[in-house]
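Chain A, query sequence.
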Amino acid sequence: MHTVETSKAPKPVGPYAQATIAHHFLFTAGQVGLDPATGQIVTGGVIPQTQQALANLTAVLAERQLTWADVVKTTVYLSNMADFDAMNEVYAKVMNGARPARSTVQVAALPKGAAVEIDAVAAMKKDKGSDS
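Chain A, predicted structure.
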């Protein structure tokens, strides 16, 4: 098992890695709308937070030369299901045609008061730095 870290995404706020590689899959930690430069949640609600969370995930994927086309599953956690449509609109634009399987659930609360958190699982090829 290998861990993945990039300075282009926020440092973890706990004892975990940004992502872990195991058995030709990259499993990301959940990303909220934290600005990697400031360590603060972006302001403006679910739309900018979704954009930032997906940008953070894009940076983690890119660290291993992966894109959203390599992602096979995402999970979206919303603190308010009323934000589903707004989140979904941003999500669809960022996916740019990629259609990984996805679960979306409402949770009681998210770290740092975030409105949204997203994690991803990507399939890796042996030549993209995966383990055996």
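The domain at 2-128 is CATH 3.30.1330.40 (60s Ribosomal Protein L30; Chain: A;). The chain has one domain: 2-128.
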